[in-house]
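Standup notes
- DV: blocked on the single-chain target, sequence here:
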Amino acid sequence: MPVCEGVEYCHGKECVFPPLTDRRDFKEFAKLQEAFYRGIKRGNPRALALPSGGTAGYGQPSYDQGLHEFLHASKMARQYIICLKYWPQVPHFNSWQGDFARLVDYNLTPTSFLLGINTMGHLLGEPKFLADIRPAAGVRGYAFDDKKSGGVAAVWCTIDDVERGFMRGPVMGVRFDGELPELIDLMGRSYPLKAGPEGMVDIQLTPAPLFLKSKNPQALAKSLQEAEILGAGSNVKVSYLPTQAGEIHANVKNQTSREQTGDLDINGKTVPFQVAASQEQKVKVSEGLATGFGKMFTWNKDYVLNQPGTDPASKQWKMDYFFVPKVNGTPDWSKVPAIPITNMFRPVVDMKQTPGGQPGDVSATFQAAWDKENFYLRVEAEDDVFDPGEPQFWSSPQA
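- DV (later): unblocked, structure below
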């Protein structure tokens, strides 16, 4: 990453930077980290976990090894680009690994990994973040104004089945104002772009970032934010939440940088929504439901999500929920109704379910309450065999 030398950022030992507020970036980064390390341990044996005796016995490289190497480089690049959004607040990102298994180090690294680093170093040597690119769910991107390269945007797809090789990535249709940008892949190869009869440029997205280079950074970012996406799935995420008034509200979350409209067919009625870019909207879908403490409620519904330009999506929501009383300070548990615990965890041992449910076996209830500062939980259990587990847990002040 570029090294922060600017005195305009630093004041002695204290630096002042804008807050890291976009949780979507960190969720994406965490997902990449998890997949990155999981891929390392199960991935390309020619590049990872090399035995002391060398590579003899591994045989010829396979398609699966090649796919893992490609994803390895893709995820590294995506993490790096996310960090660049917050540079110089995030001054350094290190993707080298090393442990007893000698995973990825400077002695042996896939070529695609190295070429990706080289490409990003040339394109984004001194970048200034401009905008997020989120025209649809499953599509990510970031636009920068680089001191040397000018406008540079990186775009990719985040669809699991595309990464696994089960399906092609979505197509991004973009109308660029003026001169078409230069398209550069992660390996540094440049491709000419051609517009169709209506001025639309189609870009096939992959898990690996594609870079678009333009003399006009602001216009580049705007064009990509307004792109039309084919094959990326739903642009909104729908969840359902109960209320204390006995209503069910649908929470419609816009996963793109454009306004999204549509409706939900549920409970025999059509409920419209209109959600601003990257925002959420709550709409009431049901009312008149039972409420009360000390009881578990169930709400299972089929619904259809309709949006312009996409096929109706049939979905299902299954939800168990309960209501928690509010208290002032430490609860008087004698006044808080208890709820039976019925979903006991019975582990599988030697491919057989652990027996349970016999007379005298465990029975349990729980009670919950809340106030402005705390959430309180109390569990009572009775069993014919008491196993305290870790004794120090029960003797701790927090037990």
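- Follow-up: The chain is about 20% helix and 30% strand.
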